[in-house]
Amino acid sequence: MDKNYIQEYATLETTHWWFVVRQKIILQTLQRSIPLTGKLTILNIGVAAGASSDWLAQFGEVTSVENEQLFLDYLSAKKFSVIAASIEALPFENETFDLVCAFDVIEHVEDHQLAMAEMFRVCKNAGNVCITVPGFKSLWGTHDVVNGHKRRYLMKPLREMMLRNQGTVRYASYFNSLLFLPIFLMRKLATLKQGKGEKLTSDFTYFSGNGAFNNLLKFIFGVEPFLLKWLRFPLGVSLIMVARKDQPGKQK
């Protein structure tokens, strides 16, 4: 990532159709899946420009972690409280937090097994881990390269990672499903263009955060929070999962 992209990303976090609706889906999932007293201790890993920590704060005290230096510089300039650390080596004692979140983070690291183990290590027994990740390897494209992704995920392997860490999955679904086909086609087209020598681009280049097109995509994607109250999507551009940490020997 470069400095200009970081500045753009900070704006997109609060205006872009994908970020806006993803926030609704995450909050709705948390509200339906786990007890939210408003007094939780929360760890938010990979906070980027900080928007997710702001909206998680309604549920309790949020500790923010970020590893990308350009984001750390941006947050420091904003006087935003953040700890510089990697998800693969979290600087906290065992069983510190009621809720541990990593929204589109583990796809960026080399050892995602270690990242998952670290999230569960710092989560209290009977606490919860919530993650979102990109879905389906078939969607791999220049967007993944620009954003430093190492992989995309399917439901079953991700669930198995949770289980290996004494996690009982409480909720799991793909999302951004209604736009799966157009995004698939757009990414294949972007890959073809890049093969002809064009500059690598993120989805954000095509699906702008402003104007009528942004509002149209927000409307289409915005149907999904309602639908997810009643069903689970079998495929999607992204995936969300919440798991409770069980004591060893207590998993069902």
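The record above closes out task 2.4. Task 2.5 opens with a second protein, given below.
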Amino acid sequence: MPNKADEKKQAEASAYIPVQDYTGQGYSFDNGEETGEFAKQHRNEIIEKVKQYFKQKYHLDITVHQIYGATDAAVVFAESKKDPKFHTSVIVGIDLENKKIGDVGAYEGSVEGAITTGLYVMAYEKEFQKLDDFCTAITKEYPVIGRTKEAVDNTVDSGYATPYYYLNTTHLEFLNSYKSFLNNPKINGQSLKKLIEDQKFISDNMIIEMTFYMRKKHENPDRTPVDKIKDELKKQKDFPPGEYSISVNSNDILMRTGTEKEYKDSDKEHNEVIIEPNGEVAK
């Protein structure tokens, strides 16, 4: 007779994949099989609708990376082609009974928040380049890596994102910047920076989620790199202002959701790193 415990372990193991091999394969939403098949057959029409939506509402050109079926809808993952750079997703209604594609929409504030993260990166372009270099150096010094670019494109919709970190905010936190962009899509980073720094600095208005994964395949997360990365971050200067949260995840990714199997993070003692507009770490 088959061993049920072994079967369960095998099923669980097959649901995970090492992060360095993950490009979004197996990612899915509930009740998405039929709508996903319909969306595949009408992919070009859906892409055109989504492109028109972004162009008319936000004056932006986008690239569609992936389309997933969901309940009565398709979820479309997209990335802006030019500044402000960001990843987001929108929902396209699908009427299977009548074989029709409906309107494009999004969760309230989700696209606006994603755009705002891209505007923030424009305002602090040099500072974010330093953060990128720092993250690359971390992966050389410690046994951690980031996600693949394909995984970011196909499974991330939170705003500006790289293999090592993503930004989280709402447009309401930087409303002047967001409105200025809508009124003038050609606004430059210097103007955006002035608008941002004219308002009171509140660290958690911009959360910078630094996310690393253990390099060794199938390895569980280790607290040690979290503490070391945090200590290294505190030594830096002229980084983007905001509240930094650091996590080191297991090497294994749950394919269906794109999330880690386990993680260790700096929130254990509520000791996130806060960097102020002057580039200094808050004491």
